[in-house]
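Lab notebook, bench 4. Still working through the backlog of constructs that have no structural model yet. Next entry is a single chain of 438 residues. Request: give me the structure tokens for it.
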Amino acid sequence: MSESDADVIVVGAGFTGLSAAEALVSAGIDVIVLEARDRVGGRVESVAFSDGMRVDTGGQFVCDEMPEIMALVRRFGKALAETPMEGAFLVQRDSKAAETGYTFAESGRIRARANRIDPHDPAIAGLTAEAWLARQSDPPDAKAGYRAMVEGLWCRPIGEIPLWYLIDNDRRTTSNGSELQYFVEGTVHAVAEALAATLGPRLQINTAATCVERMDGSVTVTTGNRDVFRARQIIIAVPPVMASRITYEPDLPKPLIDAFAAWKSGTVIKTFVRYERPFWRDRGLSGMVMWRDVLGLFACDVSSDRAAALVVFVGGPLAAQWNGKGAGFVQAEIIRRLVAALGSEAGDYTDLRMRDWVDDRWSGGGYSDVITDASAYDAEAIIRVGAPPVHFAASELAPSFPAYIEGAIIAGREAAARVMAALHSKDQPASAISASAS
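Model written out:
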């Protein structure tokens, strides 16, 4: 057992925690970062193909309208690859289905109609996105497309998601173009690793915070290794569901407990399938495929000068269902469906990597947590207020680009600003604990 002191402890070394820590260190504040995993990045991670080429198995895409992550990409000298978009968007039906296909544009129009509604409109109070959709007069196939879009993006059943929450999240995703504009050559996870490297020994991996004890003017953190850390302030920089699983002594105030209870983790499986060449382009296809007989299944071309590849996302209830059938089933089913959509060449892949985020130990799931309590309008605001000296930060709480890497960076820096304000409001200098410990 050991005891260490700092001005601020940051729990979690995803982009939220790393961004918070860097902002604090830049301000001359002594920081310790505790990360439960054996790596940094949180829901951003990477894996290597057999030839050593790495790909992002977690968060991946960035765009010009995400200034914070784009600045980090430039700062650490990472190259961008433009996501291939040319060609037809394929909406694939199962070979046994007889219905006509819906168009992506029709589904987008339903989404735009929903987003014109004020999320605080009393007329939608208590309505789930599913209940609202049932009231619309759109063709069944267009509604099916919208359902697929919602469950693929939010990774929860559409019947669980409050309409106001979906609208509010969409409004905070402030890009006018595609969020899939670029991916990072060499992985966006490498950007997280480069940011973590600037923290040096302040970062401790394989160190899971299990208990946070709040006292007058300080906090004590006990880890799964039985290490003890003490600080004046703490930022819990993990998703809401995971933050709620930490033990707090004394218990958090009831409004905070209720606010955390409003969330559930998303469920998603991400698979990279690599090929000798992007053969789908021979047929004028973009490589983007959405399936209509199962909701939440989507493929996208992520080929670059280095390799030809498709990434396939399984989101929402479908991910939870397939997760229970094992990795072998998921891989075989993805290849079967790619063959049905793109032709026999889809079965001649050269490499495959899959990441199942369902029930991930340290993330809860992916891509993000989602509010499923229709009455929890104030849940985010309550969590942002926290229980000082305990502060909470997560991409889900960001004012813009919630659930994206961009949102994670913004949320981390905002939490750092709150902590700095709290430290500066005290008569005791920010370095007092560190000085007294020495």
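Notes after review: The first helix runs from residue 15 to 26. The CA atoms of residues 7 and 29 lie 6 Å apart. Flag for follow-up if needed.
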